[in-house]
Every structure is written in structure tokens, then in C-alpha cells.
Amino acid sequence: METHSPLERLLRGIALTLVCLFFMFPIVWIVLMSFQTNETILRVPPSVVFMPTLENYTALITGRLETAAGTLNIDFMGNLWNSLFLSTTSVAIGLLLGVPAAYAFARLKFRGSEDIAFTLLSFRFAPPLLVLLPLTIYFQQLGLANTYGGLIWVYQLIVLPLILWIVRGYFEDIPADIEYAYRIAGHDFWSTFRRIALPLAGPGIAAAGLLSFIFAWNNFVFALVLASADKQPVTVGALAFVTASGIQYGQVAAGIVLSIAPTFALALYAQRYLVEGLSLGAVKG
Amino acid sequence: MTTAAPDLPRRRRFRVSRKVLPYLLSLPALLTCIGILIPFLTAVVYSLQRYRLSQPWAREFNWGQNYLNFLTDSAFWNTLKVSVTYAFLTVTVELLLGLGIALLLQKRTRLNNFISIMLLMPLMTAPALAALMWKLMTNPGFGILSYFATLLGLENFNWASDPSTAMLTVVIVDVWVYTPFIMILLLAGLRSLPPQPFEAAALDGVPRLFVFWRITLPMLTPFLLTATLFRVIESIQQFDIIYAMTQGGPGDTLTVFQVEAYLNFFQSTNVGRSAALLMILWAITYVLSNIFIKNWLRLREKQRGNA
After folding, report:
1. What is the DSSP string of A16-33?
2. Full domain range(s) for residue A235
3. What confidence tens digit (pLDDT) does each residue in B107-129 have?
4. Residue A108 has what pLDDT?
5. A26 contact residues in B (CB cutoff 8 A)
6. Residue partners of B291: CB distance under 8 A and separation at least 6
7. Minimal CB count within 10 Å: which of A20, B32, B204, B211?
8. Are A111 and A138 within one domain?
9. Considering its fold, how many domains does chain A have in total?
10. Which of A69, A112, A90 is nearest to A218 (CA)?
């Protein structure tokens, strides 16, 4: 592998440059767009030379869009808050429910445990609308329609399988002998779980939390079907934003930038665990 | 603390709860999910009914009629064709591109690590938002890609709004979002391969192409299989990108399973047909996910064994 001819090195370089161009260009372009006014965006031919403006961002943050047709109130910050609230709460509840279950699946083999674990995993692969469409009718009857509670419950479908299978792997990696030794020293089950298992699996639990946060944040279809405007996260809100009349394109771009920035930041922070999370705990990075 | 007297009852209490304990620990998670099984069963019932939200009085069981209707329903065959085409195109391109990139980045240099992290960004973008980004870039008025198309001499290249290029456009968006997924899995796979066979081949002066086909690829197969199945299952159910980009249009060009079911439910309020469509999609993904889980489990055990 060490003997690369100059020609091969050149070809590799060109291939990598093209790859980076294809995958990075859209992000760079949208970021550039978010700092432009409609006049510079609509120029033909397009140009990267422009006076950057923060107008789009201030309009989004204050929630008042000045358009030719007048002032428009857009609650994009509300959407951002919904995303933050829904994702954080779902992950917190998911961890609360999922971590003890993961421990049970990893340590205490019990009758039906593997079947249950696989059933939970298979939820991850079923078509979401199959469950969502009947739920719209049930939620209306139960009074859960357009409530945070109902959404957070459904979000467990994304969050729980991920947490369960990643954290389970981390619990399995702890040598059982450490826990036995602590137990023999006279400690009961709960303090062994709290003082030994939880801290040792800590990094895995944190990674599972961060990753499921990203997946919950990026979800679109759950809220599209179950939430109306005031409960919608950014993924659904941004779509409504585009179709609203008289919107400035720079503001749409700024909205997209604000919506993807949090997941990018988290992904950079948690990159060591991304492979593991994306493979649902099968492959270690 | 170390006196024997309080220790004994505590031990006995533990032994009693030992049988119940695992169920107790996993019960909350289970209950949350059992709530999900109820709407699933409801969907089964809906799929066996003549049920339109606009005509609730005409609701009745027609048993397999919804499914039988599909046989002569050209819209259904279109849905099946579009979904399979979409899944086939996206996964094939992503697999080839992902493998290529993984091979380029295989060596652990600082630059390669930096690039592989950068390439993850599309994957971290919500698919619905990625579709919006591409919508802005392909806008006929100011989109940069429309401008590039005219530079290449393609006048009136309308991307997603033209039936002849709509599929191409959504496939490009899907490839943009999900290629990094395949890339990162295969990269982890490549880097976890044992070095001995490669060293031996290098010593013997085996041609590199031969090494790739006979050593790298076979050893990478479990990773390739897992990544491919994972993507096929997700791709055949794709909703976010297509809905955000074109809502299944123009016409019925992109009415894949979930988009068609969504439109049936909310626009034509034909609950029965919508549920039957989703049941068929579920059957397809169920078979695929069973194969997937078996492979995934084998890979998981092997990887954990290495660790």
C-alpha cells in the first residue's frame, strides 16, 4: 500500500476533491445564502461576491419578517424551541426507561429476553406511518392530539431501540466479575447497579443520549402527522416556512442553518461514537 | 454494617425479587412500546375495511377487497415500481460511492480523519431539511444548480418539477444524505481488518487489484451486507426527502409507498386503501429486517469478540 506512483497520488487527490466538493458544496452555499438579501440571491449569474448581512437572522430571531407585502409574523424561534424541548425530554425519558432495561437484557438473562429485545429493535424498521395514521384517530379520542406528551411518547419509537442496543453493549463489556466482587462484599443489587455498572457504562450512556437526540431532532414524519403549527419542530416548521407567501429566500436559508447547527455541533462532539450509534451498537468505531 | 443479623433478611429479599427483577427493569420500556402495538393492530383492521373518512356511514368489513383491488389498480403498480426503482438506484449508487470513498480514506492520516468527519455532516442534516436545501439550489429562478445546468447547455432543466428528472433529483438528495452512512460503516470495517493477510500478500508481490477482489472484499462482506440491508429497508420506506421535495409529484412520478399512503389518508381520506398499502410495505420490510437482524447480530458478536 505504501508504493504509490505520482500519477496515482494525483488521481486520488482529484477523486477526494470531487467527493468533498459534492458533499460540502450544498452546506457552504446555503450558509452563504443566509447572509444575502433577496436582491443578491436573485442575481444572474450567481456570484459569491456580496455584502454580508445579518438581516435574515435578526428577522428570524425577532419573528418579524419585513416583506414587500407588509410585515409577516413567523414563529421560527417557537419551532426551534419545540425541537429542543421534544428532543431533550424524549431522550431523558428514553434513558430513564431504556438504561435499566438494557441492563436487564445484558446481565440478567431471563425467559423471552432476547425475543423482547428483538421486537423492540424491529420497531426501528417498521414503516412509521403504519402506526402514525391510526394514532391520529386514537390521539383525538384520548386528548393527546397536538400535545407534547403524545409526541414524546411516539418519539420513544426512535429513541428507545437506539439507547437499548447501544447501552446493552456497554453493559456487556463490563467484566461480570467486578460486579460479583462488589456484591460479595455485601452490597445489594441496587447499589451495585448504581455504583459499579452505571459509572462504567457512563460513556456509552452519554453517547446513546447524544445520538438519540440527533435522531429525534432530525425526525420529520412524526410531527408532520401528529402536531399542528404551535407544536411543530424545525423540520416541519421550515417546510411550512417555504410555502408561506412572500418569504425571502435568505431567511429560509438562515432558518435551515439555525436548524442544522445544533446537530452538527453534537455530531462533532460525539464523533467517536457515531459509527456505533449508526450501526445500532454493532460496529465500534 | 458488617453484622450478620441484618444481612440475612436482605439476602432473602433479594432472592425473592431475583425472578421478577429483570421484568421489573424492562417493564416500563415494554409498556411504552406495547402502546405502539395497538395502533398496529388497528391498522390491520383498517386494511380489511371499506373505510373513507368522508363517508363514515359506509364503513364496513370488506375483508381482502382492498388487497384484491391492487391487482388491477395501476396506481398501486406504479407505487411499487417507483419505490423499488428508488431503493435500487439510491442503494446501488450509495454502495459504490461509499465503498470508493472508504477505500480512499482507509489510511489513518490526519487529513483523512478530518475529511471523514466533514463528510458526516450531510448525514447529520435532517433529510427533510436536506431536501429543502436542494430545493433552494435547484430553484429555476435563482438556484445555483439550475444555473450550472444552463452553463452545460441544458436549457429549461427543471430538476424535481419535471417528470423526467424528478427521480434523478430525489436520488441525488438521498445519495447526498446517506452515502456517508455506508462510507463510515465500511471505513470502520476496513480499519478493523487484521493486517496479516495484507502483509503476506504484499510480501509475495500479489497485484493490488487481486488483493482487493480476493482479500479485502470477502473480508468486508459482513459490513457490506449489513450496510446494504439497512439502507434498502430505509430507502424503500423513504418519505421525508420525497415529501419535502415534491410531495410525490409531479403527477404520480414519485408516489412511493409511504407518500402514497399519506396522500390517500389525508387527501382522498381513503383509510382502507392507505392501511392496505402500508401493510404491504410492512410485509416487505419485515422480511428484509429479519434477514438484516440475523446479519447484524453476527457482525455484532464478531465485533464485540474482537474488542
Report:
1. HHHHHHHHHHHHHHHHHH
2. 76-278
3. 889 999 899 999 999 999 999 99
4. 78
5. 122, 130, 133-134, 137, 176
6. B229
7. B204
8. yes
9. 2
10. A90
All three cell numbers of B222: 459482513
| Cell triple for B159 | 430538476
Residue A115 lies in a domain: yes
Q: Tell whether B158 is covered by a domain.
A: yes
Same domain, A45 and A157: no
- The Cβ of residue A176 has, within 10 Å, a number of other Cβ atoms equal to 11
Which of A82, A220, A215, A225 minimizes the C-alpha distance to A144? A225
Kindly provide the ipTM of the predicted complex, given to two decimals: 0.90
Instruction: State whether A131 and B180 contact (CB < 8 Å).
Output: no
Same domain, B25 and B143: no
- The verdict on B251 and B209 lying in the same domain is yes
* pTM reported for the whole predicted model: 0.90
Q: Is the CB of B265 inside 8 Å of chain A's CB atoms?
A: yes
Q: State the CATH number of the domain containing residue B161.
A: 1.10.3720.10
Asked if A278 lies within 8 A of B189 by C-beta distance, the reply is: no
| CA end-to-end distance (rounded Å), chain A | 22
What pLDDT score does B183 carry?
A: 94
In a domain, B242, yes or no: yes
Q: Is A215 part of any domain?
A: yes
What residues make up the domain containing B38? 4-47
* CA A57 centroid distance within chain: 23
List pLDDT tens digits, range A161-219.
889 888 988 888 888 888 888 888 888 878 888 888 888 888 889 989 999 999 999 99
Quote the minimal CA–CA distance from B129 to chain A in Å: 6
pLDDT tens digit string along A112-121? 777 777 877 8
Give contacts of A129 with chain B, Cβ < 8 Å: 239, 258, 261-262, 265, 278
Of A42, A45, A138, the CB nearest to B39: A138
Contact (CB<8Å) A119/B33 = yes
> What mean pLDDT comes out for the span B275-282?
93
Q: Residue A237, Cβ neighbours under 10 Å: how many?
A: 24
Per-residue pLDDT band for A80 (boundaries 50, 70, 90) equals: very high
Interchain contact, B30 vs A116, CB within 8 Å: yes
Q: Give the mean pLDDT of B206-213.
A: 86
**B95: CB partners within 8 A, 6+ apart:** B182, B224, B227, B228, B231
Inside any domain, residue A69: no
